[in-house]
Amino acid sequence: MIKSFGSLYAGHVDFPDLGFDATPVNDRWLSEEQLNTVYSKAEAIAKTMDSNGFDIFWMAEHHFQREGYEVIPNLLMLAVHLAHITSNIRIGCGFNISPMWHPLRLAEDYATADILTKGRVVFGVGRGYHTREVEVFGNPMIDAEANRNLFEEQVEIINKAFSKESFAHRGENYTIPPEVPYRGYDLKDITLVPRPVNRPVECWQPIVSASERGLNFMARNNMKGIIGGGAAVGGASDEVIYSWQKMQEKYGTETELGGNLCIGYSAHIAESEEKGIAEARPFFEENMKMFAPLGFVRGLSDNQIDALGSGSAARSAELPTLEQSVESGSWLVGTPDSITQKLMKVQERYPGVEMVNVGQVIGTPQKVIEEQLQRFGEEVIPNFS
To answer: Cα-flanking dihedrals φ and ψ of residue 141, to 5°?
Structure first.
C-alpha cells in the first residue's frame, strides 16, 4: 500500500528554449550565473515539497555539465543545507555515484550528514552512466565489468564501515588499512569516525538493467531499489518486480509484491489528458534529447539518435511520443482524479509498494515544477493518507 511520495530533481536549470526545435544538447554552454541557479531552484523545490505532504526529495550527483541538465556535484553538502531550511522532508541521495568516490570518504560524509540533520538524509548509491564523469575521476565506466566490480567492492567497504566498530578489508581494488607503522604500532584495522547514528543505514540503488547479478547483489546487501519509468501490468517493470521479490526470498526477506521498491513516474496534472500532453510535450522532448544518446530510450536507431542532436530533424525521425508514454504507464497525465485512480491500480497490483516517486522531467521550468508539486500534494496525496 502506498504510504509516502517522493520526487526526483536531477539538477537542471531553466532553459530559454525547449523541445526538439530548440538548442541541441551539445550546443548548450551556459554561464556560471545560469549554472549556479540550480541551488536556489533546489531550495524552492524542497520548500514546496516540505509544505505539501511529500516524504523524500531525491537529488542526483553529477559533474562537469556545462550544458545545465544535471549540475549538483555534492548531494550530501546540499542535503545538509536543505534539511536546515525545511522542517519535515527527508533528503534522498539518488544517487551518490560511488565510482567517483573513495568509499571511506563517502561513508564519512554520509555519517556527518546523518548526525547534522538528525537522520533526515537517505543514503543511496549508483554505478554512474556518464563516461565524462566517472572516467575523468580515474575510474572505469566504459569497461562495465570493471565498473561493477569496483562498485560492489565499494559498497562492501561502506557497509563494513557503517556496521563495525573496527574493520579491515583486502580486495581487488582496496587494501584498508595499509599495513603501515602508526604511533609505535602497525595498522591492522580502522574505525570510521563518525559513524551514522541511525543504524542500520537504509540504502537505495537504482534498478536499471535488472540483471540477475545486480538484483542478487542488492538483495544480499539488504538494499532497496528505485525503478523509473512506471510499472504497467505486463510491461518491463512488471517482470522486474517479480524477479526482485524472488531474489529477496532467496536471502530470507519475505515481502508482498513490490516490497522494498519505490516506483517512479513522470507526472503532469491538467484539466484533461489532452491538455496535459500539450503542456508537457516540450519537457518530454527536451528530456529525450538529453537521455536517448545515453541509452535510456531503448530501441532507437543510430539515425534517430543523430536526429535528436540536429534540431527540427527529430520531428521526422519517428521517435517515441508522449502519448505512447502515457499509454504505457510511464507518464501520469491528466486530472488529479484520473492520476489518483491510476495509482490506486498500482497499489492493487503491487501491494508491497509503499513509496512512489512523481516528478517533472529534465527541462521542466521551476515555476511549473512548483505548481505541479503543490497540486499533487493538495489534490492527490490526501487520497493515500
So the answer is: -130, -45
Contacts (Cβ under 8 Å, ≥6 apart) of 196? 110, 111, 114, 115, 162
User: What gap in Å lies between CA 293 and CA 302, rounded to an integer?
Assistant: 9
Q: In this structure, is the dihedral angle defined by the CA atoms of residues 135, 139, 143 and 149, taken in order, positive or negative? A: negative
Cell 521542466, residue located: 364
Cα–Cα distances in angstroms (integers) from residue 198 to residues 32, 110, 114, 118, 122, in the given order: 37, 11, 7, 8, 10
The tens digit of pLDDT for each residue in 133-191 reads 999 999 999 999 999 999 999 999 999 999 999 999 999 999 999 999 999 999 999 99
Strands in the chain per DSSP E: 4-9, 56-59, 90-93, 96-97, 121-126, 169-170, 175-176, 181-182, 185-186, 203-206, 224-227, 261-269, 331-334, 355-359
Residues 6+ apart with CB under 8 A from 306: none
Which residue do the cell numbers 499533487 mark?
376
Nearest to 221 by CA among 157, 128, 149: 157
Q: Are 131 and 142 in contact (CB under 8 A)?
A: yes
pLDDT at residue 311 in the model: 86
Alpha-carbon gap, residue 9 to 365, rounded angstroms: 12
Q: For residues 237 and 259, give the distance between their C-alpha atoms in angstroms, rounded to a whole number.
A: 14
Strand-strand pairing, 224-227 and 203-206: parallel
Residue 306, judged by CB atoms within 10 A of its CB (0-12, 13-18, 19+), counts as middle
- The residues, ordered by sequence, that sit 6+ positions from 77 with a Cβ below 8 Å of its Cβ are 109
Are 93 and 79 within 8 A, CB to CB? yes
Determine the residue type at 64: F
Provide the residue count of the chain: 385
In the chain the domains, ranked by start, together with CATH numbers, are 4-94+207-384 (3.20.20.30)
- pTM for this entry: 0.96
Cell of 156: 562492501
Confidence of residue 234 (pLDDT cuts 50, 70, 90): low
